[in-house]
């Protein structure tokens, strides 16, 4: 849009974040609403989000790329559980193929956004991370696609005596480029997706890798390559084969999740049996791979081609289940009295969750307190006009939901354009509707901040759905002129 030098640039939509969600949102706007002006603001110097930020050894997806990838762009690589460099190429190809490169503004960190009902727009304060300059933009809509965790730091709990350790202590989110673990004893603290990725990746060159966990995690081997996908691609062609594989994998993910939730004891026994077959004879499976909680109370960890189990079998890696008493000069002292010696310690202890990319929101001069809001269709906030956000699934591939949210967002904008509405504000018709935490998920990184997140209601459309087929009906084919939404013109809002 052409503006005078002193004018504030106005855009129809401002997308925050150039990761997998932001690039997807940009593509849907370009194809479904080609007349819409938008920009994608990225605080970092590169696109790709998670897949550019994390540089630790072995970084990969824990979902298959036929469902983690976009519905509109087939995943052509033969490996369906893919490494970060391959995913990054795919994301950047998507941006280039859809003409998004010119829309991405790097080093632009959104600091705050203030909504004015009188003007029916957001005033957005942005900091240039490369120069420190502050600038202001305005937008009809904000689309927060910055993910759910802080990019500048990971979560590291307090460890007594940490300064005593003589070697390096690193968090995977800030992996040093010059860190060489070849021939060294590496201690990885943690048992989540990052830890089970790091251990086999480091075990190939390290003297030995030990995974120290406080509580076991459910771990399942998955095939790195999907043989059925290859057959479907040969029989049906690239596009149709991809669609068929995607449907197959969506059904498979849903079936596994439903089985685990409906028959947790049977699922526990099945997972234990699989683990026993993967581990050496006589291995203490119940000590190291039998969590005290039910399957899918937290996310299951996938290990491609059983690489973690293979490292344990060949003796290059081991698992210890215990609690840390204190760090020592040589490693860590455990509550059991055992000392684990190490040359390098990796704290794979999780993420710091951050909603709305950490930006400060105000509506007509009133600060938005997220715990006082209720999530509408898992993509908007009660009482907050013209704001959407992208949060994917915790029980299957993240991007499955992002695509549906982006489709619904574009349909909502088209409806407003057709009816002349400037403002869209979710408001529960029942102010006394009971609420509960936004995510019904027991993972530690969620539980640490659950009281800082929005809430969800006890009925649609205020429930946070984690079911793809339900969301297809709600977001792809359901009406956008919902009675729980208030549509207004700017002049009417001023009168009100």
Automatic annotation (TrEMBL):
Q: Looking at the keywords, is NADP present?
A: yes
Q: Where, by residue number, does the polypeptide cross the bilayer? A: none
Q: Which Gene3D superfamilies match?
A: FAD/NAD(P)-binding domain
Q: Which UniProt keywords apply?
A: FAD, Flavoprotein, Monooxygenase, NADP, Oxidoreductase
Extract one GO molecular function annotation from the record: N,N-dimethylaniline monooxygenase activity
Necessary cofactors: FAD
Provide the family line: Belongs to the FAD-binding monooxygenase family.
PANTHER family attached to this UniProt entry: MONOOXYGENASE, PUTATIVE (AFU_ORTHOLOGUE AFUA_8G02570)-RELATED (PTHR43872:SF1)
Q: What is this protein called?
A: NAD(P)/FAD-dependent oxidoreductase
> Species lineage, top-down?
Bacteria, Bacillati, Actinomycetota, Actinomycetes, Micromonosporales
